[in-house]
Here is the input.
Amino acid sequence: MKEAILLVNMGGPSRRNDVEPYLREIFSDPAIIDLPAFIRKPLASLIAMKRKEEVADRYEALGGYSPLFHWSEALRQNILRELNTRGIDMDVAWAFRYMSPSIHDTMSVLSSKGVEKVHVLPLFPHYTHTMTGSVMKEVKRSAQRTKLLYEYIEDWGQETQILELWGTYLSNAVLEAGNGARVMFVAHGIPQIYVNRGDDYPERVRMSAQKLCSLLPASTEWTVAFQSKVGPLEWTKPYMEDVLEEWSKSSAPIVMMPLSFVADCLETLYDLDDVAKHLAGKHGAKKYVRARVFNDDPEFAKALIDVWQEKCYAECC
Here is the structure.
């Protein structure tokens, strides 16, 4: 049986004119806005129209398009090399949930190449209904149309190989920050209503943070906070901005450790490196360091394939 690996991330615009349809796709997803379609779709169009210029300006500051196009291809190439090293002959492709190349289009291409089964690796360390759940619903729909078999890893943010790599990034950032550094583990927030309904995403994030804290000096102050809140509804707390404002009253260095993003994107390069850093400085922080994310680190490809082989490939091949 011919098989392939499919990497899936959220996506992003490739040019300014893509911002509005990108936003409309996000907010049209019932996993994001849980309302009947006749309400949700017009609301999504309204939100996209109102936010497009502001979001487009943010992407312009990053070069005019999402860096995820570059990093997704870099990861694909690294995984291909890692598979080759292990003697595994398998195609690797990547897709976006909310932008082209779409999940369905990519699965269709794989099917046309004779692939019969797809191993889906959602590039989100912690499962949440609003993202990994949404991706897998789209994979299921596409699989029904393309007749492809599939399996997937639900999440991988507590796996030893991943924690070790994160730990290296965290240790380097703490060293750069200096004595007395405090660590804020930052994750993308989700609407609190989904947590109330049973989504355990915040707990999964906290479990990763707790395990990483074992690498820090015992006296290190740390917390988990959530970023990227949109709209008037309550999202997972504490909000990053509130913690930053409080922490910045002290002169102790601040280390921001992202736990939701496999690659630099709007949420790291704009929200953390620009907005959060400016907010911390405004309120008196003397030193602010943001830990790196995986990007094109070949060790991430190695860790991800380790996890995949342990969870999926070894069981069926």
In short: The chain is about 50% helix and 15% strand. Residues 160-290 form a domain with the Rossmann fold fold (CATH 3.40.50.1400).
